[in-house]
Structure formats: C-alpha cells, structure tokens
Amino acid sequence: MQNRLLIMGIGNYLMGDEGVGVHAAERLQQAGLPAHVDVVDGGTGGFHLLSYFEKYPRVILVDATLDGNPAGTIRLIKPRFASDFPKAMSTHDIGLKDMMSSLQLLGQIPEIHLFVVSIATIQQQGVELTPEVEAIMPGLLNKITELANTLEPEQEPAG
Q: Alpha-carbon distance 104 to 20, whole Å?
C-alpha cells in the first residue's frame, strides 16, 4: 500500500447535496484512473474508515460543507491538523475532525488533500444533487483526476 493513493468520497447519498462526495466516488470508479489509485465510497462510515487512513500514505477526500459560500463552490484544502477541517455536519456518524484527531493520537496521519464542495442546505431526503451542485460535478471530477495524476507513486529504491 505504500505507493497507493486513495480517493474517498464522504457523505450521505440519501440526503441530496450532502452526498456529493459519494456521487463523486461513484463516478470516479468508472473514470479509468491510474493503476496506483483506489476509489472508495466512504459514505458515513465514521470510525470504520480509520483503517483506510492507516493503510494509505496519500488520500484525496471529497466532502460537502455548509460554509456560507455559494452552492457549488469547490475548494482544495491540504489539512495538517484536525482543526484545519471544516466543521462536521450532523448527518455524519463522526466528523472528519474527530477522525483526524484519532489519527493524530495514533501518529498515523497520511498526506491528505481535501476537496470541499459548498452546499446551501442539508436536504432531508433525495438522492439527486441540486442543479447548482450537479453543474460543478464535471469540473470537480476533473480537478480530482488532475491531482491524482500529479501524485505519482513513490519509486521504490532499486536494490
């Protein structure tokens, strides 16, 4: 696993835009990414996702955020500490901050790149994305794929 890259979409698929990370993961699984890249639908797995962060040296996360920006705004964050993550949304088992705090205690934080997509509200039901968020999906997938292509696997020493 030391040369692998994980792309993980986080969110609740059944709550509209809050599931944008899961939608992105599903679409990326069909995208023909480089051989060193694995894609996982992290859903609302909470602490069950910790093992992925322990196994992979580099992780690209995709999640929704209620940050007050216009719906569909995409930001790339390179968090180093739990406090660098956006605040948790109530639909997740635990938030990314909680998970990162646990990894900090274990001393096993991988290199993380976090794409956050701003959403307007948390919808209570529905698997469809709003038109604003659906409209940015091609650009989001392109940004994730471009980043994955730049994060080439580390070469093992010849020996």
A: 26
Task: Tell me the backbone φ, ψ of residue 92, rounded to 5 degrees.
Answer: -85, 150
Share in percent of the chain as helix, strand, coil (round to 5): 35, 20, 40
Residues 80, 136: Cα–Cα separation, whole Å:
26
Contact 86, 67 (CB under 8 A): yes
The series of mean pLDDT values per 10 residues for the chain, 159 residues long, is: 86 91 95 90 81 89 92 90 63 60 72 93 86 97 95 61
| pTM of the complete model | 0.85
Q: Where are the beta strands (DSSP E) in 1-121?
A: 5-10, 37-43, 58-65, 74-77, 111-118
What's the CATH superfamily of 5-150?
Answer: HybD-like (3.40.50.1450)
